[in-house]
């Protein structure tokens, strides 16, 4: 059973949420996607920008050999689908039942031209996404399996902004495809971290995790 994530990540500007009140004519209705539903596909026209109201989304590419590489997980409050080209580079899919707010990309660009606060928030978001892509590339290229899993747990801990418990909406297969590992390797790494006393599992499905020793995880992440 998938966990439901409804905690807003810290330090994420609510760009489309702000527009709902200020520029209502630019916003479409909210849309609901069932677990596993495709929101948009790779190479489809990038006509809309999305913000997650509830749930979680994964962005991924299917490689030529059939493997899946997840590039990012989008959580509540996150904005995704903003491209610098006319088509999407990734496929976006709902991990759990998910509600998104969306608006036309051209409308957003037009409003940003006259709204300095919105333009600044878009720049912050773009810079943050670029830094995440660079960190992800480093993680895939330079870190061991144990270091990758530790880094992932710390990332989720920061982004979910919870109260000591990390509730993961994604399954271990998703985590493996995000970290460039096998499912078995992710399971072994989590078991090792549990044996080391760095984390504890709160539920039988092991989606609810307490980070007992963040210092130990941070040392692995460096």
Radius of gyration, taken over Cα atoms and rounded to an integer in Å: 18 Å
The span between the termini is 33 Å
Q: How is the main sheet built?
A: 4 strands, antiparallel
What would you call the shape? Answer: globular
- Per DSSP E runs of 2 or more residues, the count of β-strands stands at 11
User: Which bin fits the share of residues in helices?
Assistant: 40-55%
**Main sheet strand line-up:** 1-8-3-6
Determine the oligomeric state from the structure: single chain
- Tally of separate helices: 7
Instruction: State the order of secondary-structure elements, H for helix, E for strand.
Output: HEEEEEEEEHHHEHHEEH
Task: Identify low-pLDDT runs.
Answer: 1-13
Q: How much strand?
A: 15-25%
What integer is the average pLDDT?
82
What would you call the structural class?
alpha+beta
